[in-house]
Write a structure and sequence with these properties.
The chain is an alpha+beta fold. 15% of the residues lie in helices and 38% in strands.
């Protein structure tokens, strides 16, 4: 009798785990960058726990006709970040390791791809 109850409880727990929806994957931490706003002032932005793997076009600098690229990227997430010079993760790129040092202001970006792989 006890074995039947134990098996029933184990089966119920397994069914519950299988029925739970999968959560969206996200890098843990923050990805920081700076950009110059329309008023000429430098602004800082942080993406908190960004989706991963995913390409993120930085909205403030998405249009090359209307803005200068972002700069001073700092990957303080647990994922690799590949920054791109153009929107939609195109153009030249550079990899930033997880929880790395801030990049120099010379590294320009308009999008970033975060993933578990280098």
């Amino acid at each position: 009798m006890r074995l039947r109850h134990t098996l029933a409880a184990a089966f119920g727990a397994f069914t519950l785990v299988v029925a739970l929806p999968a959560s969206a994957s996200a890098a843990t931490g923050e990805f920081h960058y700076k950009y110059v706003g329309p008023d000429g002032m430098t602004r800082s932005v942080s993406l908190h726990d960004p989706h991963s793997p995913a390409c993120v076009t930085l909205p403030e600098v998405a249009d090359p006709k209307d803005s200068e690229p972002a700069f001073a990227a700092h990957n303080d997430t647990d994922a690799w970040a590949r920054v791109f010079t153009d929107p939609n993760c195109t153009g030249g790129s550079w990899a930033l390791k997880p929880h790395g040092k801030p990049a120099t202001d010379r590294l320009k970006l308009r999008s970033v791809y975060l993933s578990d792989h280098h």
